[in-house]
Structures are given as structure tokens and as C-alpha cells.
Amino acid sequence: MSNTWLKKLQQIFCMPPENKDQLIALLRDAKQRALMDTEALSMMEGVLQVSELRVRDIMIPRANMVVIEHDDPLERILPVAIESSHSRFPVIGDDRGEVMGILLAKDLLAYCTKGRRRFDILDLLRAAVFVPESKRLNVLLNEFRANRNHMAIVVDEFGAAAGFVTIEDVLEQIVGEIEDEHDFHEGTTILKRGEREFTAKAFTPIEEFNNYFGCDLSDAEFDTIAGLVTHALGHQPKRGEKVDIKQFRFKVLRADSRRVHLLSIRLLPTAEDVAN
């Protein structure tokens, strides 16, 4: 075979990708040939996906927001901050529920000691950043970095608050679940929060879940809790969605457009509990 034909064959099989689908196929092929690991491939796919997603795809909807009323006393605010474990809270005012600003949990520490000064939530409010539902995630990420913001209130086409989004939500589209100080010790997949409250990693095998709770959820069709919850909802779960399966109420704490990462679990009262 002549050198000319060899060059033509090389050109055919070494053509650079012409679109995103071809690029992803090339990356997956590289993973199959052990040129990169699964985590690296997942992050690269996440980077490519971020430019296609919009804020509405990952935001926490208004119905699932933990908010503070502008006239709430400190005695009501502190339990909300402690129970939710959030670091930032939208503060809403008047009957229309418009967001007045953002309250940082750390700013409440000064009011938790004896001899604290008079509490006025207006003294603690930080300016809220507002973004439209249609904004692309890559643009939002650049704005977060440039302005050093961590949270933005999402508004709909009429200017009403539709939810909120954080820089962590955007980064999780690229790197997957970001663990925080409340997460699990190494090797654990289920964490007890209270008498009837638990948190579980979504990839927890159903068999392990059954052993932990002494229950009998079926693993005939699905291997993990994420698969069970996804099937019960009938679609790819989004953050804040809830579903009851037997004696458990599952709530999606963290999820992206590809998979569920973290679930909260509440044990529902049984007939025996009600009787007692």
C-alpha cells in the first residue's frame, strides 16, 4: 500500500471531533482504553453539560426554600437555622413574599451569648443577587466567581422569586456531590440525624439499607436506593422532591441532571406507633 493511501486512512480515523457528541464519544473511548478514569470522564462530561444547562434545571424551587420572615423574632430564627444547617437564608417581606435580602447564619452568632445587643434583622441583611431562570450555568458560574457571590435568587419572567441557586449547585454539575461538615465518616453510607431522621448516600445498596433498618425493600429490579426512588417518582428526581416507600419518606437533598447523590430519610409512624 502506498504512502498516499496510508495518509488518507490516517486522516479518516484521526479526524478531530466536529461536534459535542463526537467529542464525548472520543472521551469515552479514551476511558475504555484506560487513558483516564471514571471520575475524570464524569467531570469532563459535566463541564460540557454546564454550558447547555440553565438555572431552572438545577435551582431549588420556591416551595422548597427555607426562608426567614423579615419580622421573625430571634427566638424563631435560631431554631430554623439550627434545624436546616444552612449557611444562608433568603429573607422575605410583606404579603407578596418578595426577597429583601440574604441572612448569613454566622451573623447570628453574636446574638447567642448572654448580654447580647438588641436584635434587628435589617442590620444583618446582605444584598440579594437576582438571576433569570433562563441564564446558562457557565455564565452564572463566571458571575459567581467574579462577584464572589455564593447564592442567587432565581426570578421568573414576571420578576417573582421562583427559587434559588448556589455556587455549590453549579459546581456539583461538574464534580458531582460536594460533601460538607455534616457528611459521613469514611466507609459509611447511612447517617443517623435523630430518632426518626437519617441521611443516606443514594448509591447505598438496597441490601445494605435493609440490613441497617431491618426492612425488606425489594432489590429484584434495582440495586441501589437511588434506583428505587427514581422508579417510585417516575422520572429523574430533582432536589426537594419527596416520595413515600413503605415506612420511609425519602427526600432528594442533592441531585443533578444525571443522578441522585444524597437522600434524607424519615421513618413514618406505623400503626403500632399510632396505637401507642
Low-pLDDT segments: none
Main CATH class of the largest domain: Alpha Beta
Mean pLDDT: 81
What is the CATH homology-level superfamily of the largest domain? Answer: CBS-domain
State the helix count.
10
Binned, the helix content reads 25-40%
Strand neighbour order, sheet with most strands: 8-9-12-11-10
Strand content: 15-25%
Biggest sheet descriptor:
5 strands, antiparallel
Can you tell me the CATH architecture of the largest domain? Roll
Radius of gyration: 23 Å
CATH topology of the largest domain, by name, is: CBS-domain
By secondary-structure content and strand pairing, the structural class works out as alpha+beta
Overall outline: globular
Quickly count the domains.
3
Number of strands: 12
Structural summary, described in words:
This protein has 276 residues and is an alpha+beta fold. It has three domains: 33 residues; 120 residues, CBS-domain (Roll), CATH 3.10.580; 81 residues, Uridine Diphospho-n-acetylenolpyruvylglucosamine Reductase, domain 3. The strands form three sheets. It has a five-stranded antiparallel beta sheet, covered by helices on one side. Strands 1-7-6-5 form a four-stranded mixed beta sheet. Strand 3 and strand 4 form a beta hairpin. The longest helix has 13 residues. It starts with a helix and ends with a helix.
